[in-house]
Amino acid sequence: FDIDALGVIESQDDSHFPAHEGFASVNYGMMHACGHDGHATIGLGVARVLSEIKDSLHGTVKLIFQPAEEGVRGAKSIVAHGHLDDADYVIGNHIGGFGTYGDAYFIPGSGGNMATTKLDVWFHGASAHASGSPHLGHNAIQAAAACTMNLYAIPRHGAGASRVNVGTIQAGTGRNVIADVAKMEMEVRGKTTEIKDYMEEHTRKVIKACAEMYDCTYEIKVMGGAQTAESDPELMARVKRVIEEHMEYKVADYIPQPGGGSEDVTYMMHRVQEHGGQATFFRSFCKTDGPAHSRVFNFDEVVMPRVVRVFASVVYDIMK
What we know:
Elements: H1 17-21, H2 36-52, H3 74-80, E1 89-97, E2 106-107, E3 115-124, H4 140-151, E4 162-171, E5 181-190, H5 193-213, E6 217-226, H6 233-246, H7 265-274, E7 278-286, E8 288-289, E9 298-299, H8 303-319
Parallel strand pairs: 1-7
Antiparallel strand pairs: 2-7, 3-5, 3-6, 4-5, 8-9
Helix pairs in contact: 2-8, 3-7, 4-5, 6-8
C-alpha cells in the first residue's frame, strides 16, 4: 500500500469534493493526487479484517505501507532490508479511473510498466557580469538549455517505447549575472530495462558533452528507479477466481497495454519471483474526477471497501 503524496497544489474550489467536504490537503503544495490516501485506508481495512479472522489463517501475513513510490525509491529500500526474503506471495494494488477495461471493477494483475531512472543533474560554471565581463563567465544556463534540447533528440530504440523528460530547471540569481549553477530534475524510461539503460547511457553522454561545450562541470545523482515486471498467471487466475466465486464485481482479463507508467512495486515482485514465489499487481477501477496527478483529482470512495474485500479474500484463499 503506497502512502505518499505529490507536490501538487490542491484545488480549493467548492466544486472539488475534498475541498467542499473539508478534507483537502492542509499542507500547501502537497496533495494526494494519485489515490495513495485511498491505498493507506485500504491497508488499514485489510489489517482490521485479517485480524478478525487470524485464527483461520495458517502462516505469516505482512502488510507493507510503502513510502516514496512517486519518486520510485521506497520499494527498493524495503527489498534491500529483507522484508520480502521469506515471502511466498506478494500482492499489490492501485486504484484508478474506468478506461481500457470498460465497466470492469478489477483486473487480476498487470505488467509492462516502464523501467525508469530519475536523475538530478547540476551544471557548475562561473558567474560574471553579463555585460561588463561575460567572457569571464561559464554559463550554466546555456549548458542546461543545450542539454535539454539534445536529450529530446536522443535516437529512439527500435525494440520498444522509450521516454525522456526534463521536468524542472532551476538556475540564475539575477538578470545581469552569468549563472554559475543550473539544476535539472529529469527522468528516462524504457519498455524494458535494457531500453531504459540505453536511454540513460545516452543521457549521460549528452550531459557530459553539453557541460564541456560551455566550460562547465557537472554532477549526476540517481534519485530513484524502477524495473519492469509481469504478474504471475497462476496468482492472477487465483485473484480472478476468488472475485468471481465470492463477489458480484465484474473482473476482466489483463490485456498488456502500451502505457508509459512506472511502478516500483516491481522490485518487490522481482524479489519474490526470483526465489520461486508468485506476485501480482491487480488494478481496481472507479469513477474519478480529473486525471491523476492533477489538482482536481478525486476518486469514488466506494472502491475502498471493494479492494479491502478482494485483498482479504485472496489472503484467506491462500492461507486457509
